[in-house]
Structure formats: structure tokens, C-alpha cells
Amino acid sequence: MEANDFGKLIRGITSNVNLYIGSEIEQYGIKQGQFEYFLLIYSTPGINQIEIGKLKNVGKASVTKALKILEEDGFIKREADEKDRRNTLCFITEKGEAIVDDLLHVKVNAEHNLFEGFSEQDKKVLFGYLLKLYKNTEKLNLES
Questions:
Q1: Which domain, by its residues, includes 83?
Q2: Burial of 22 (0-12, 13-18, 19+ CB in 10 A)
Q3: What global pTM score does this model have?
Q4: Cα-based distances in Å from 50 to 14, 63, 133
Q5: Which of 50, 71, 75, 98 would suit a FRET pair with 132, their CA atoms being 20 to 30 Å apart?
Q6: pLDDT tens for each residue of 21-61
Q7: At what angle do helices 32-43 and 60-72 cross, to 10 degrees?
Q8: Which of 3, 100, 85, 8 has its CA nearest to residue 45?
Q9: Residue of 19, 15, 30, 98 whose CA lies nearest to 67
Q10: Which pLDDT band, with edges at 50, 70 and 90, does 143 fall under?
Q11: For residue 127, is it within any domain?
């Protein structure tokens, strides 16, 4: 097997899941690109933009762009951190709260279908291998 074969499968899995999520959430006015940000803010009220970037492994500009869209659409609000004005804290709005259950259902359904036929042990083993691959890719960037 070639590394390209693995990459093709990983990209295909990601694409299929993203297409499903995108088609399920478009009715709520949230794009697939903001879905994970929204759920992260929901599960961690008051999370700051720096932490979001670290958790999603993306740059400051990507975080700012996604949050700006969610804020303009009324799903989240951003507030300056009173302890450190350089930080911006993120919260779900009432409009966002109104769709949380539906979005969580989409996430759970995607995960259910993704792991159909997998035992808990299968999932643990797969997670271990994916984590190992991820750590190996981190080394690539350190070597550059």
C-alpha cells in the first residue's frame, strides 16, 4: 500500500462526512465550516479564540473568519475577557440555543453511521493508529 492510498481514503472519509453534515445543517443557516466551531463553543461556554485555534489546530485568521460569520448570523456572541482584554470569549446566543439539539443530532447521527459495525475496541485501536499518524505528521512540520 502506498501513502497516497491512505491519504485518498482519509480525504474521502472527510469529504463524505462533510457533505452529509453540510446537507443536514444548511436549513439552519450554518455552513459546514462553522459547524465544529459552533459545537465547540456550545460545549465550552466562554472559550477564547486562542483555545479554539489550538483545539482545532488552525490559525488565528481561520478562527476569526469562522466566528465572524457565526456572530453576524446571530448564533454566537463574542465578548472581551475582563481579566485580559486581548482575549475574546465566545458564547452561544438564544438563536444558537434554539438549534443546538438539532445540530447535536446531526453530529451523533454522522458518528453512528461512520462507526457502524465497529466495536468499542475497534474504535480504540483505530483512534490509537490515527493519533500515531497525527503525531508523525506533526514531526514533519518541525523538521521543515
A1: 18-114
A2: middle
A3: 0.85
A4: 25, 8, 25
A5: 50
A6: 999 999 999 988 899 999 999 999 999 999 999 999 899 89
A7: 90
A8: 100
A9: 30
A10: low
A11: no
DSSP symbols for 72-98: HTTSEEEEE-SS-TT-EEEEE-HHHHT
Q: How many domains does the chain have?
A: 1
Distant-in-sequence, close-in-space partners of 90: CB < 8 Å, separation ≥ 6: 41, 46, 47, 48, 49, 52, 67, 76, 77, 78
**Mean pLDDT, the chain, integer:** 92
Is residue 119 assigned to a domain? no
Residues 30, 95, 72: CA angle, nearest 5 degrees = 55
Q: What's the pLDDT score for residue 128? A: 96
In a domain? residue 134: no
Distance (Å, whole) CA 123 – CA 120 = 5
- 144, part of any domain: no
* CATH at residue 101: 1.10.10.10
Q: How confident is the model at residue 140 (pLDDT cuts 50, 70, 90)?
A: confident
